[in-house]
Amino acid sequence: MSAAQCIPLRVGLTGGIASGKSTVARLFAARGVPVVDTDRIARQVVEPGTAGLRAVAAAFGPQVLTADGRLDRAALGRRVFNDASARRRLEGILHPHIRQRLAAILGGLRAPYTVVVVPLLVETGMDRDMDTVVVVDLPEARQRQRLAARDGLGAADIEARLAAQATREQRLAAADHVLDNSGAHPTLTGQVAELHRRLLAEAGPPPSSAE
Length: 211
Known about the structure:
- This protein is α/β, with parallel strands linked by helices.
- It has eleven helices and five strands.
- The chain has two domains: 1-34 and 113-211, 3-Layer(aba) Sandwich (Rossmann fold); 40-108, no CATH class.
- It has a five-stranded parallel sheet with strand order 2-3-1-4-5, with helices on both faces.
- Helix 4 runs antiparallel to helix 6 (84-107) and helix 8 (140-151) packs across helix 9 (155-163).
């Protein structure tokens, strides 16, 4: 069996900010599905001593580093959040490192399918790296309510965060499967259980470790 055949079905999980991606990821993990969080990978590729951190510091200057040489995420965030060209520059630095690390992780897994959580899946074009795309959907009005309650954000900050992401319509257009998170948690649990059955059928039997 080739290495490509051993890689599990890649299921990209995304959704707008405060849509419930983390809840859905936990529901999949509770069913024994491997879950890979690209936000965690993004932190790993800029750890001290990495090529990713050196590239970020070269691009944005030493002011994005702390006194002990770590990435100052708050300072970097201030540089890129409201500057689309700076954000694209940062993405151009980090995404190749993230993709490389993700490929290595997926290559070491043996499961029918793996959920890859990518908050900016559509925005970064990583949906093209996935075999199927799952979108956690929530009306924008509910997103605003959750952001205000969860993070204590004001209206201007909420709108800025929504504007920095793909629109709801763009995400839905990229979706192969949609999970509606506008209802109660038990409803979402049932949707994940049904989608789990469908994805198992789509993936087929687990890859064998035998050659």
